């Protein structure tokens, strides 16, 4: 699996569309302080489905849309697309290349797309489960995360190993199934109450 291309438009400091092509080997992004280097990383985290605004260094999700400057007005929508080569079939899909897109409008509406087709956030998170490339995974390591791992904050070290070992997806499915069972129990109780009232 290899990052192939990142397209950003209206996200944070990027009012106009920028396209970053990732060639073979290491890609370095350099520039003066405040030019938007970290915003590039934020955009990758965001398109992968990040929901925590703190992880995006923002107070509100709306703040990730280009706010405008003295020279130009604010944008109404942020859009990021990430294209990934899946030639080794690490992602569970038949496509050799996939593009995930996330959009957020100022109205608060948002959408996710997989190869141009509207999908759910869950489809994107499921696609990247246990690949190490999820928004909160070890693919993006920032300074604070290194501290958390060293101090084992909130069991972070165990979570990292579970993701690498491919256990996370089963834990997630177990949690979802237990929730469904709980809901079904609650429904059954309600049915029993109704039956009791009728009798
Ligand atoms: P450093 O090297 O100091 O860490 P950097 O290159 O990583 O800096 P970023 O933190 O990526 O820089 O970008 C900061 C810039 O992004 C600031 O100038 C800030 O005003 C701008 N910015 C952040 N959010 C928005 C937004 N919604 N609209 C417009 N500009 C934004």
TrEMBL record:
Location in the cell reads: Cytoplasm
The residues listed in the UniProt record as binding ATP, with positions renumbered to this chain, are 32-39
Which family does the entry's similarity section mention?
Belongs to the SMC family.
Q: What is known of its domains?
A: Contains large globular domains required for ATP hydrolysis at each terminus and a third globular domain forming a flexible hinge near the middle of the molecule. These domains are separated by coiled-coil structures.
The free-text function statement in the UniProt record for this protein reads: Required for chromosome condensation and partitioning.
State whether it acts alone or in a complex, and with which partners, per the record.
Answer: Homodimer.
Q: What is this protein called?
A: Chromosome partition protein Smc
Organism, as annotated? Chryseolinea soli
